[in-house]
Amino acid sequence: MSVDTATVKKIASLARIAITEEDATRLAPELGNILGWIEQLGEVDTQGVEPMTAVIPNQLRLREDVVNDGGIRDLLMQNAPQAEHGFFTVPKVIE
Amino acid sequence: MTDLTTLGIAAIRDGVRDGQFKAREVAEAFNAKVAAADQLNAFLVKTPDHALAAADAADAARAAGETLKPLAGVPIGMKDLFATKGVATTAASKILEGFVPPYESTVSQNLWNAGAGMLGKLNLDQFAMGSSNETSAFGNVISPWRRPNDTAPLAPGGSSGGSSTAVSAGLAPGATGTDTGGSIRQPAAFTGISGIKPTYGRCSRWGTIAFASSLDQAGPMARDVRDCAIMLEAMAGFDAKDATSLKLDVPNWEAALSVDLKGKKVGVPKEYRVDGMPAEIEALWQQGIVWLRDAGAEIVEVSLPHTKYALPAYYIIAPAEASSNLARYDGVRYGLRDLPEGAGLQDMYAATRAAGFGDEVKRRILIGTYVLSAGFYDAYYTQAQKVRTLIARDFERAFEQCDVLLTPTAPSAAFALGEKQADPLAMYLNDVFTVPASLAGLPAMSVPGGLDKDGLPLGLQIIGKPLDEQGVLNASLAIEQRAGFTARPQAWW
C-alpha cells in the first residue's frame, strides 16, 4: 500500500495536526508501511460475523435523572491556557 | 535491622500490623530510594509527603487500636496516566505539561481509601503508546537491568516502564500500570516482576487518561503474585462513573490463592509458536508446561486460529479509538496552547497539537484518522471489529477444553534503547503474545520464569476466562513457586 504526501496532508488536516512538507515526506512511507501490513486483515473471511461491540457482556445502566454534578466552574477553569470572566477564550473566529 | 525496601506488599502490610516496624520507617526508606534513583528516570513527580502522610495515618490507627486498612503502611508508585488531585498529571506528553487535575481517578482513590500512600508519579510511554518507554516527552526510563559487562541502557518495556523499573529496582513495593495491548505484562516480563491485567471492566477507567477505551484496563505490578492479588483487590470494583464498569463484587483473591492445580487443564496454543522466536523462550515455555503439570494440571494443546490477525486488528482499533479520544487536546480547556502570530482557531488547534504530541502519538492519530475516514471505515475499522469477534470466539472455544492458557509474555528479553526505534512495525511486534487477550477483554498475567543467556528476565503469561482472575493468579503462583525466581538487578545507579 502506498500513501502519497497529499494523502498524509489531508489526514493531518482532518486530525488537526500541523505538518511541514518534510513531515509529510517522512510520514508517507511510514504510514504506507503500517497500512500495508494491516491490510492482511482483508484475507480473513468475515461473512456473517458481527463486529464486536462489547468485549464483556454488560448491561447499560440507567441512573436517576437528577443533577449530580456541577457548580465547579472555577475548578474547571484553573487549567485553562487562557480564561476571562469565567469563560474559556479563543482567538477571534470570523467565518 | 533489615532493609525495609527489600520487602514486598504483603510483608510490609503484615509487619506494620504486627508492629515489627513503623509505617513511617517504610515510607522514609522508600522515599530515600526514590530520591537516589534519578538516573533511572522512573519518576516524573516525587510525592514523599503523600507517602509519609499515609504512613502516619497507618501508625496512628495502629496506636489507637483500630483495624488497619488492607494497604495500611504500603507506599506505591502511580503511573502518570491516573489523574491525581493536586499532583501534576501529564501522560508523559508535552500537551499536558503543567496540568494539575482538580479530581482523583477512581483507581487511585480506591488505593488511598485502602490506606496506600504515593511515592510519586511514574514515567511511561507518551499516552501509553509504546513498548519501550522511549516515547515519553520527559526522557527514557532506563531499566535497572544490564547485560553482563555492558553498560548499554536497556528498555524497561512499555508503556508502564516507570512502573516496571520502580518495582524491579526496589524503589516501590508495587505500582499501578495500565494495559491496552500488553502495557502491564510486557514491562513486567522485561524486568522480572509480576503484573496482571484484570478482565475488562474490573477496574474503573474514570480519571485514567484514555488511550483506547474498549481495551484500556488498569492493573497492579509488584514483586510477586500475592502482592498483585492484594493490590488488585484494592484497585478493582464497580464505579457508576464508568459506563463499562462491571457491577460485581471484588473477590477475595488473596485469601483464595492456591497452587494446587489438580483437575485443572492448561491449554497451550499452537499458534503462539512464531517464526524466529528465540530458543530460550521456547525452552522456558516448555519448562512452564513441566511446572504446571507438576502442580497437578493436565496440559492440552489448543488452537486459536486467528492469532496472527490480532496484531493488525489491534493496530486499527487502538489508533482509531485514540484518534477520537485525543481530539480533546485542543489548547482550549487545559494543557498546552500554541497560538502562532495572527492565527485563527483552526490554526491554533493544529499548531497546539503539532507542538504538544510526540511522533508516535501523531503517527497513531494519523492512522486512526485514516482508518475511520470516509470510504475506508468499513474496509478497515468494521473488518477489524469483525476479526476481533473471531479472536474472542477462538478463546471461547479454547476455554471449552481448558481453564487457563500458558504462553510466553514477549517474543524476546529486553532490548537496548534505540534498537527498535527506527522501525515502528518491529516495535509493534513486541505485543504479539499480549494483544489477543486484550482484544478479548480477558484477564492475563505475566510472571517471571527465568533468565536468558545474558542474565535478563523472561516472563510467562497465563490467560484466563472472563472474570477468572483467581484461576490466572493460582496458575501464576504455581509457576512462581517452581521457578524460584529471585534474581534482582545489581544497583549501579
From TrEMBL, chain A:
Keywords (A to Z) from UniProt: ATP-binding, Ligase, Nucleotide-binding, Protein biosynthesis, Transferase
One example GO MF annotation: ATP binding
Catalytic activity: L-glutamyl-tRNA(Gln) + L-glutamine + ATP + H2O = L-glutaminyl-tRNA(Gln) + L-glutamate + ADP + phosphate + H(+); L-aspartyl-tRNA(Asn) + L-glutamine + ATP + H2O = L-asparaginyl-tRNA(Asn) + L-glutamate + ADP + phosphate + 2 H(+)
EC numbers: 6.3.5.-
GO process annotations (BP): glutaminyl-tRNAGln biosynthesis via transamidation; regulation of translational fidelity; translation
Similarity annotation: Belongs to the GatC family.
Family annotation (NCBIfam families): gatC
Subunit composition and interactions: Heterotrimer of A, B and C subunits.
Protein name per its UniProtKB record: Aspartyl/glutamyl-tRNA(Asn/Gln) amidotransferase subunit C
Organism of derivation: Sphingomonas zeae
Automatic annotation (TrEMBL), chain B:
Gene Ontology cellular component annotations, sorted alphabetically: glutamyl-tRNA(Gln) amidotransferase complex
Active-site residues, as the UniProt record annotates them: K79 (charge relay system), S159 (charge relay system), S183 (acyl-ester intermediate)
EC number: 6.3.5.7
GO molecular function: ATP binding; glutaminyl-tRNA synthase (glutamine-hydrolyzing) activity; transferase activity
Recorded family membership: Belongs to the amidase family. GatA subfamily.
Subunit structure: Heterotrimer of A, B and C subunits.
UniProt name for this protein: Glutamyl-tRNA(Gln) amidotransferase subunit A
Taxonomic source organism: Sphingomonas zeae
